[in-house]
Amino acid sequence: MKKLKFGPIVMASAIAGLMATLIVYRMLARYAGSYLPPYVTWGISFLMLPGSLVAGCIGYFRSPDRTRAFFNAMILYLLAFDLYSFGWQKICKLQMAVVLGMLDMPFNSLDGETLTWAYFRRSYPFTVAIAIAQISGSILLLFRRTRLLGLIVIFPIMVNIILIDIFYRLHTWVLIHALVLTSGLLFLLVQYLPGLISFFFRSPDTLPLNAGKRLQWLLGALVVTIPLLLLATYRYPDLHPELTGKYKVEQLRINGEPMQVKRQTDSLLTTVYMDWQDDFVLEFNHYNNRYIGTYYFDEKSGHIQVQWRYPAGFKTQFEGTLERAGNKNFRFTGVLGTDSLQMQLLFVPEPK
């Protein structure tokens, strides 16, 4: 019998140890955190990793096959346990929670993590659907005949979680937890690799199609090219990309008099938005105090004019000239109603 290499055993024991560390810590912190000091919680949790590594090294020299099987089982059941727990915590509303006071904050003021949880908690049925997927995948892992199906079901769930953690900048430990679980999943999945390659790439296609090989190639080419041709001829809604953006109002002068916001109750112009479809918004110190309309811009002269549609019946004249004042900044000179208006528009980048 060919003896197993030492590397895979060490990898399996390391993955199992990391999974045990994170899962034990999460369970102790959530369910015993009120009476266990943090150092005790961390201490118990971190013992899992060296304990697993030592067990792997000893087991390799005694019985490599049994040791590999042991760590396969450890990874499998830890993965199932953790995802099963996550699923029920979602159903019980212990995940995707947001402080109620944050939900009334402006959209752009929320950090990525709060924004993510606010989005998911908006629909409890959707949260339950995610939970059911996690619970179902976990249960499939428990049975021999459905184990591979469970791994395949869970894999896209974990990839999606990792991408959300990365691109919405969730807490580092949340990302690490997801990466460790996914490494365990991949470790198990790789052991099915020969069968998966045979199934996906070598099995004959039994789907009946009333199309010959040439016609299939032609239809495939049309599928690939037609959407690109449609996009190439599409009139994009960003009609003036050089203007599109949010601008902070500085150096505001009304009828030649300098104006500045001193209190939250002041109703002075503070923000200007120029958006897709030539939407134009003037905001007066609060997002509830806005004029909304459509702007018309002459690129040659820099003349801009707005036709309002909100508030209803609001017809006050707004027009003037936009002049560039540095990188993406502008200087506006014009009128709002019967008042002359001068202001500096400072471009505000979108939050990342």
Automatic annotation (TrEMBL):
<feature type="transmembrane region" description="Helical">
    <location>
        <begin position="215"/>
        <end position="234"/>
    </location>
</feature>
<feature type="transmembrane region" description="Helical">
    <location>
        <begin position="174"/>
        <end position="194"/>
    </location>
</feature>
<keyword id="KW-0812">Transmembrane</keyword>
<feature type="transmembrane region" description="Helical">
    <location>
        <begin position="148"/>
        <end position="168"/>
    </location>
</feature>
<feature type="transmembrane region" description="Helical">
    <location>
        <begin position="124"/>
        <end position="143"/>
    </location>
</feature>
<feature type="transmembrane region" description="Helical">
    <location>
        <begin position="69"/>
        <end position="87"/>
    </location>
</feature>
<keyword id="KW-1133">Transmembrane helix</keyword>
<protein>
    <submittedName>
        <fullName>Uncharacterized protein</fullName>
    </submittedName>
</protein>
<keyword id="KW-0472">Membrane</keyword>
<feature type="transmembrane region" description="Helical">
    <location>
        <begin position="40"/>
        <end position="62"/>
    </location>
</feature>
<feature type="transmembrane region" description="Helical">
    <location>
        <begin position="7"/>
        <end position="28"/>
    </location>
</feature>
